[in-house]
Every structure is written in C-alpha cells, then in structure tokens.
Amino acid sequence: MASHVLKGITFIVLAFAFSFAVRLIWVYQFNDFESFKYAGQFMINTNDGYYWAEGARDLLTGISQTHDLSPIKESVSWLTYVFAMLLPLSFETIIFYMPAVLGSLVVVPIILIAQNLKMIEVGFLAALLASIAVSYYNRTMIGYYDTDMLNIVFPTFLLWSLILALRTKEEKYLLMTALEIIAYRWWYPQSYSLEFSFLGLILVYVLIFDRKNLFNFKLITIMLLAMMGLPSLIRFAGVIMLYVFFKQEKWQKFLWYLLALCVILFFVTGGFAPIWYQLKSFVFKNAIEMSADVLPLHFFSVIQTVREAGQIDFTVFAERISGHTITFILSLIGYVLMVKKYPAMLLGLPLLGLGFLALWGGLRFTIYAVPVCALGIAYLLFTSSVYITGLFVNEKLGNIVKSSFVILSSLGILYPNLLHVIEYRVPTVMNKIEVEQLDRIKSILDREDYVVSWWDYGYPIRYYSDSKTLIDGGKHNGDVNFPVSFMLTNPQESAARLARLEVEYTEKAFVLAEENETKSKEQQHNIMNNTAQMTLDYGFKDANDFLDALQTPLSLPAKTRDIYFYLPYRMMSIFPTVAQFSNIDIMSGKTIRQPFIFQTTRFKDLGATLDFSSGVVLDKAKGMLKIGNQEVPVKNFIQTAYTPDFKFVKEQNTIHPNGLFSIIYMQAYNTFLILDDAMFNSSYIQLFVLENYDERFFEPITLEAYAKVYRLKI
To answer: What is the rounded CA–CA span in Å between residue 55 and residue 394?
Structure first.
C-alpha cells in the first residue's frame, strides 16, 4: 500500500513539474523584453486579471470605497491576498506565477482517477497532455491571472470524488464531493450548470441501475444541499451536519424526508434559473438587447463582438482540446472504450458535453473537455500497447516494442501542444510606457474621478491609476457601452456633455440602487438605464432627439468629480467595433449606417498612385480615391509626425472641399487612415490622432505617442 501511495505521489510531482516547466518557456522567451516589465517585474497578460488584482490590492491596503466596484469580496482576490500575506514574494510576482502553479494542479485529480482504476501510467500520460493542451495552456499560462487558474481543477477533483463515491460507496467521499461543490461555487459562481449536470447524470444512473442502494440517495441529498443558492458558510455548516447525521445509522430512516426537503429547498433557492441564464448568454445570443424600461431602448449586444463567444469550426475545436484533430478523434474512441470497462467514467460526460458546447457557444468552453479527452487518448494508447505485446511470441521483444510504441506515441501526442506553447507568444496587456503614463496621472486623479475609455482598458486603468471607469471587462452590456461609444465616435461638444451626464447619472444610480435595497418591492423605484432616464428628465420622448440636443447648450448636472478621457493608440485597431455600439437607432434597434474607417500599414507608393491594399487606391493627381469599383473625392490629406524632440506636428491640405473621405498619414506609426466625415470628426480621431481639442471642453494632461489623456472642463 505504501509503495502504491509513493508511486502516485511521484507521478503527481513529475507531472506538476513538467506542467510548470513548460509554462516557464514564456518567461525564457521574453526575459529581455523590458517593455513587458514594470518596476522590474513582469506584468500579466490578461485584461480581467487587473480586476482581481485591484481587489487583492485594496484588501492589502485596507482602502476601498463605496461604488468603486473593487472585488474585495471575490474568491480570486481573497486567495491572492492570503498568498501575499504568507509568501515572501512581491505582489506582482504572485499574480504573475499563480496561474502556472494553480493551473498545474489539474494533474492531481487526473492521476488519482487513474490510480483508483488501477492504471496509473494512463493517468500520468493524461496529466502531461491535459496540463499543456492548447486551450488549457492558453488560459493557465504564466501571467494569465484569472479564474481559469482553478476552473478545471475543481470540476476534475469533483469528477474524481464522484467516481470514487460510486465505486467504493465510502462515506468520506460524500463529504469530499459536497465540499468540492462549495469550494468550486465560491471560486466560480457560474459552476452551477456543471454541478447540475453531474447531479442529473447521477440521478439518471441511480434511478435506472441502482435504486436500492441508500448510499446513492445520500450522495444526491448532500449534493443538493451543497448546490443550494445559499451563502457558502450556511451550506458548509449544513453539509457538515448532514455528514455527521449520515454517520449515525439510527437516523437512516429519515433519509427520504431529508431528500424531499433538500429537493424543495434546491428549487426554492434557485433551481434551474442560473442554468437558463447561462444558456441565454452564450447559446441563444441576440445581436440587439432591449431594455425593459418606461422608455424601452435598443442596444448592440457585446456578445456579438467577443471572439471567445463566437462559433468555431471543428478543426479549431479539436486542436484546442487535444492539439490535433486525429488525437481528438482517437481520444473519443479511447473514452468510449474506457467507459465500457469502467462505467463510472460516464461521469465525465458533463465535462465532455460542456466542451462540445464550444461548437455553438465559443472556444471558451473547449477547456472543459481537456481532462476527459486526455484520459481517453492515454487509455487507448496503453490498451493498444498491451495488444501489441500479445502479437509477439518472444516476451522480451514484445516489451521492447511496447515500450517504444508508448514512448513514441506519447511524444507524438504531446508534440503539437508543445509546439503551440513555443509559438504562442502572447504579449502583456499593456507595455511599460503605457503603465508609466497611467502611474503618472495617478498623482493627479482622485479615487472618485472617472476615466473614459473603451471597456478593454477598464480594469488596467482602474488598477494603475486607481480611479473609476464607466465600463470594464465585466460591466459592458449594450446600455453602458452605448454612451461611451457615442462619446468616442461623435464630435467633442456632444461627447463632452454626455460624459458629464453619464458620470453624474451613474453615481446617482448607485445611490438609488442602495435606497431600493432597503425598501419593499412596492416602494422600489423603477431604475432605468441612464440614457432612458436622461431622455425623460430633459423632456424628450425620443432618445434620438435627446442625443441630437447634446450639440446645444443643455443645462448640465452639478460637477461632483473630474472626468478624464484616456485615448490609447491600441484602440485604433478596434475603433470600427467601438463605433458599432452607437451606430444604432436606439428607439428602433436598426443600424443607422456603417461608419467608414480603413487602417493600413500595407501600402505602396507607385508614383502616380498610392495603393493602400484591399482594393483601395489613391489617384494623386485627381485626388480621387478608388474603393473597389467606386471613385470618390478626397476632402483632406493630412500628415502627422513627431520631431526629434518629440513635438507633435501636422500638415493638412484640402483637396476637394466637398470630398467624402479624409486621408491621414500617421508617419510615426507608418499607418494610413481613410475615414468618412463622421469618423474624421469623432472625438477619438480629433483628440488622439490630430490633437485638435476644443478648448471649451477639453484640456490636455499628457500627450504621449502611445496614449493621450485629456481632462473634461465642464
């Protein structure tokens, strides 16, 4: 027994070391990239990570105020806080390496599952593959500081305890299963759907195959209690009491009453509602959201622009799970064979099924299928090796061939995943110069001030400048994205007034929401989205009329805080997407028109013409722009540059006063922009690209090549 345990520990340590070492490849590749470091420390490479980092930072400093949206009560922030208090490491080092350490823990339950099935070598190979599989590596690599660090570790442990519970019928696995569910929900509240799938599968199995065994109903009862929509501490206490109750045989006769009570409480405290919400979010996606206010408005849905929530083809799907399409198909065959020999492995179906949801719901789901498929391909490989051995009369020769087959096949399985790790050179979220700029303005800003920018930069802005934002990686529904998109894509006058209105109405909405929490449902106010509320408050019935009125001197709310516009160069590549959110008639939901903005660094000066690629060509002599089969007059040709002492200069020539497009050559970025009038006059283009700020509304704070910051004067 001792040797059995020692063997398991040895395999776990080796697999963990392999997983962690592979993740250090990124560090080796970028160790000399000073732009990826700040204050001598590597920065993280996922935007959402700055959300949890903000919460952990505020827990460490003890500074957090109402309405700043800092996640000081969230699991990732708390775990980071504990590590920061206990470990003699810098905060930046902890959040940078946490994903590699915690993500590598997935090898533990995989090896434990295989060890219980008396095939630990299968578990070892499966652990090696799962730990570096494309999708799993992408979301647990060095610097990917997010909930994905443990999002697969927890359900794989849950799979392990459920398999052992059904195979051994030992009551200790009742407690382990329940505690894993509670811990998983604490870490990742969206885990409810997967927990429900495990419960449903066990229920089906019990009702069809094993209805007479009371242990199975104990398992269902304690799982229901652990899954209820109650605070974690209450569920924890309830699970402990129920486990003690189950240990007393004299109370067994009350099992059915407890089961009935848990079923009722399960549905009363949530039931199927959270699952339906997740399905609506990622499967039944709508391009347009409609608010349920007194003044119903239509907004563009953010889910349509998130790549990880989009449909993917089968090849990408297979490669993200197993590294190669052939490996993936073989892994499914191996899983079927594994289930045939070990029926308890059917419990892997919820993880596998959630992985398959990626074909409709987006690549983010592929990560769930990784452990099950890894076990499947490893089982098929070792089963095949046993068959190969039987083909040889000479046992020694058979073992040599078997070992060679196992080693070469294992390397073949691991190779495409290792190749992906080497080639997947993802950069940090922000570079050193950008962070230094944010750190400088931190001394100017108050914690109550707002910084207006697109949601992609919300979390890093909040972390480095310690200020507030209107939208971020978690707060980016259509109704909150609309006003920010409007500010960035409309003229400065409208943008300035809406910025002041949006900030003041946002703060007012926080207070109103707090007041409503203390009132009965009959007393509660109807809290509308800000745009609808502004429209009605200013006496309009049509929100479009209100938006048009922003170009006139409206009476604005009293200023309670400063507002800054953060305009980075990196927003240029996504500016057409930013524009989509306000390019909509919010009364009807119809698209107004497609704004035209074309950016290119692939251009050729052919003498008489400038070829911008993609069928866009400028006739220099005529000042005509050919786009496909159309020819349109060019209004302005502008060139911007920086002098050797970093002074911004620009030169503008008007070619056709009534032209439809303007061309801007940004020499410092070796980039051409071609824009229609609407985009040319947008606040982002005027303030960032041209530094044409309206002194009535804006004053420059810092004008760097990477990003420009302006303060709102009204």
So the answer is: 64
Cα–Cα distance between 323 and 137 in angstroms, integer? 11
Q: Which residue's entry shows tokens 């452990």?
A: 371
Contact by Cβ (8 Å): 244, 223: no
- Residue 53 sits at φ, ψ, to 5 deg, of -65, -35
pLDDT for res 269: 83
β-bridge partners, 639: 651, 665
Q: What is residue 666's predicted lDDT score, i.e. its pLDDT? A: 97
Q: What one-character DSSP code corresponds to residue 643?
A: -
Q: How far is CA 706 from CA 430, 433, 640, in A?
A: 10, 8, 14
Cα angle 283-286-292, degrees, rounded to a multiple of 5:
120
For the chain, list residues with pLDDT below 70: 1, 271-293, 303-310, 393, 517-527
Measured at the CA of 310, the angle between CA 307 and CA 316, to 5 degrees, comes to 90
Q: Model confidence over 549-598: pLDDT tens digits?
A: 999 999 999 999 999 999 999 999 999 999 999 999 999 988 887 889 99
Backbone angles phi, psi at 452, to 5 degrees: -90, 125
Distance CA(71)–CA(221), nearest Å, equals 33
Map residue 672 onto helix, strand or coil: strand
This prediction has a pTM of: 0.90
Q: Are 69 and 54 in contact (CB under 8 A)?
A: no
Say which residues have a Cβ less than 8 Å from residue 57's Cβ, sequence separation at least 6. 91, 463
Between strands 698-703 and 604-605, the pairing is unpaired
- DSSP 8-state assignment for residue 469: E
- We find that the CATH architecture of domain 432-560 is 3-Layer(aba) Sandwich (3.40)
Encoding tokens for residue 73? Answer: 């009560």
| Helix ranges (DSSP H) in 601-699 | 677-680, 683-684
Q: How far apart are CA 128 and CA 608, in angstroms?
A: 59
The phi and psi torsions of 159 (rounded to 5 degrees) equal -60, -45
pLDDT score, position 329? 97
Task: Locate the domains of the chain by residue range.
Answer: 2-423, 432-560, 569-712
Residue matched to tokens 């890894």? 374
